[in-house]
Amino acid sequence: MKLSKITVNKSLSNIVVLISGSGSNLQSIIDNANDIGINIECVISNKVDAFGLNRAKKAGIATQFIDHTQFKTREDFDQKLIQHINTINPELVILAGFMRILSTDFINAFAGKILNIHPALLPKYKGLNTHQRAIDAGEKFAGATVHFVTNELDSGEIILQQSVPIQSIDTAESLAKKVLAQEHLLYPKAIKKVLGLR
Ligand code: GRF
After folding, report:
1. Cα dist. 175→57, 100, 122, 144, 187 in Å?
2. pLDDT in tens, 3-35
3. Radius of gyration of the chain (CA)
4. Which 3 state secondary structure label does DSSP give 168?
5. Which end of the chain is more exposed for a tag (fewer CB within 10 A), N or C?
């Protein structure tokens, strides 16, 4: 009997990534895109010199620079972002070091589809300077959290977390390096988990 070859038609999920800086998390998502089952349709930055834009270009991904300083209000800038992202109609909008607070309009436009990575074990240490605050508080562990984005800063449903022990010799800088290395493992896993749930 001749067996016909079965081909599994696994379609890729389109995603958009928003960045403002180095984009090392973006790089990890690029490197793991096949395994996650995603196609990165576009990388958008609000900073023209964000190194992540170079990473995207090198990987052959479309890039878009949208300068927030050119808009009168946060809402105007977010409308421009919404318009651009709507042309792509992605399954997920991934924030990877995007240093802008998003308006309610933006969050409602992509409700349940926006993910962020935060360098702390949420709900502890929302906002900035997470590592120094964790050290100052005498915490035994720091870490990273991937969560859904809602209107309340760093407060949406947690998808995955990874802890990192704080050593007595750790500084905010040394801890940031160790946590970032874990972020690179965590974000691809979290995206895969969310897409698997759909
Ligand atoms: C990461 O520490 C992430 O947790 C935070 O911003 C940083 C982005 O780093 N949201 P990179 O641009 O991905 O290198």
Report:
1. 30, 23, 16, 11, 18
2. 444 444 468 999 999 999 999 999 999 999 999
3. 18
4. coil
5. N
Phi and psi torsions of 160, nearest 5°:
-150, 150
**What six digits make up the tokens of 39?**
């196609």
Please give the single-letter amino acid code of residue 193.
Answer: K
User: How much is the pTM?
Assistant: 0.94
Does the Cβ of 118 fall within 6 Å of ligand 1? Answer: yes
Please name the residue that has the structure tokens 């709900």: 123
| Residue 44 φ/ψ, nearest 5 degrees | -110, 135
143 touches ligand 1 (CB under 6 Å):
no
Contact 43, 52 (CB under 8 A): yes
Which residue from 112, 180, 178 is spatially nearest to 147, judged by alpha carbons? 112
Sequence-separated (6 or more) residues with CB below 8 Å from residue 133: 125
Q: Does 122 sit in the ligand 1 pocket, CB within 6 Å? A: no
Strand runs labelled E in 20-67: 38-45, 62-65
- The whole-angstrom distance between residue 155's C-alpha and the CA centroid of its chain comes to 15
How far is CA 158 from its chain centroid?
13
pLDDT digits (tens, 9 = 90+) for 81-94: 999 999 999 999 99
Atom of ligand 1 nearest to the CA of 28: 13
- C-alpha to C-alpha distance for 69 and 65, rounded to whole angstroms: 12
